[in-house]
Amino acid sequence: MTTAQSTDGQLFPQTPGMVSFTYRREFEQDLAGTLDHIRSLGVTDIEFSNLFGHTAAEIRALLDERGMHCSSYGVGYADVQDSTDEVAAAAKTLGADFVRVAWVTHEAPFTEPQAEVVAEAFNRVGTRLRTDHDLIFCYHNHGYEFVPHNDGTLFDLIVQSTDPAVVSFELDILWAFFPGHDPAQLLRRYPDRFRLMHLKDLRRGVEGDLSGSTAKENDVALGDGQLDLPDILRAARASSIEHYYIEDESPSTAEQVPRSLAYLASLRRDGREAS
Known about the structure:
Largest sheet: 8 strands, parallel, barrel
Domain Xylose isomerase-like TIM barrel: 36-265
Order of helices and strands: EHHEHEHHEHEEEHEHHEEEHEH
CATH topology: TIM Barrel
Keywords: Isomerase
Structural class: alpha/beta
GO molecular function: isomerase activity
Strand content: 15-25%
Helix content: 25-40%
CATH architecture: Alpha-Beta Barrel
Organism: Microlunatus soli
InterPro entries: IolE/XylAMocC-like, Xyl_isomerase-like_sf, Xyl_isomerase-like_TIM-brl
Number of strands: 12
């Protein structure tokens, strides 16, 4: 990750990465030009969850030409199980250290038996990726996993039922907040399990649920929404998070992404925003 020129007193001194989904429409039209635009924002770290009709080798060459890199490769739940070696080969070609899944096939509402099946699959796939390919498997929460269970949720059950040596997590802070949970508390509860983070914010006034879905227009620039980003980032600093990525699913990324970057750079460790 690129370090800001002056980090004195900054809460978030590094430049975050970018999730390819943020610029999915642009990548479909012009992959090289979209990388140039992201690079012009100072962002060099990409999480690809789509190859946009290109090969992993073609994307790697474009990244290398621009001094950029792919740190995480997102794939489908079925693909990581049924085509583990092929997924791993693409991830290695891209230069990624992480393979990420963001949604599991399930019947709503999510149930304890489904969570147990998922945890077993994660342990199995995570072991193969780690042992055979030296890659780290991460699961990205999506909101539906936070069904109450015992003293916690089914997300807690998944975390506690998976092997920390082979299964890590990517915290999507919006999809933790949307079903009614505090992302900062999750980081403090499991400081060694989260390795990646999606930075995003939820429009004020929007009420969440366990669906794992909301209108894309409800993604707003960081600092404009409901999430307590300073507290989340303070918790993240004390956790095992290695890569932070902006993910903005809205149709307003041209305006919102620069504002999100400016907001992150403005945050001070004492909780104030720089003037």
